[in-house]
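Deliverable D4.2, example record:
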Amino acid sequence: MAEMVARLASERAVVVFTKSGCCMCTAVTTLLGELAVSAAVHELDREPLGKEMERELARRLYGSGGRGGPAVPAVFIGGSLVGSTSKVMAMHLKGELVPMLKNAGALWL
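Output generated by the structure prediction step:
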């Protein structure tokens, strides 16, 4: 499953793993959309292997036990895991998100 998540996370400059109906997922994808980022979005509750991918994302976010909070949204920029909502929003407020998006080729501003 780790290889599958890695492959999907690298398919575009920005990849977001979400679940339908998740308000934090909507907040992150809305922010990226307002920044004119065309992210690949994978809704895990609509993926055949979504539960397994969610466990892998939790492991990546919170360590080997995979416990510590929700696994979605999980945001990858340039193939690297950035984090969840709090990390992405904090980076945006600090002015760090846009430069990272530019470096990954997700923005042309």
